């Protein structure tokens, strides 16, 4: 008998509210999202942008316009993202110019920093990522799901040098 491969978490249903022309609250979208691969590896993490605003103070006026660009983060505004990692997978090391709030909702995951520090997070744990370069490791036999709110920030500056958005392969 071949071992069973765990299935990824179920698709995420996204409900977005807005207003009618008369100013009444209404549901403007109710649909299941589609996940995309983060990288080229067969076991690459899956992600979807659940909502994005390119303004620091977004407007809730007017008609809803799809705002789920899949690039990581704009120079302004915020992004709300879901991240699913397959069992025994590793993301590239990366840094975004953002302040990220992460909430682990399923499974467990290890955040590795480029100084070698590793922090294990389980369902219910949160992490505040402040523009540091990091990689994610799912070292378990189950899928992991993490939700992120990413807010555009000023780049980290060390000795007069601004640290850029960066991607590089993990050392493991």
From TrEMBL:
Q: Where is the Cupin type-2 domain?
A: 83-147
InterPro entries reported for this sequence: Cupin_2, OryJ/VirC-like, RmlC-like_jellyroll, RmlC_Cupin_sf
Supply the name of the protein: Cupin type-2 domain-containing protein
The source organism is Rickenella mellea
Taxonomic path:
Eukaryota, Fungi, Dikarya, Basidiomycota, Agaricomycotina
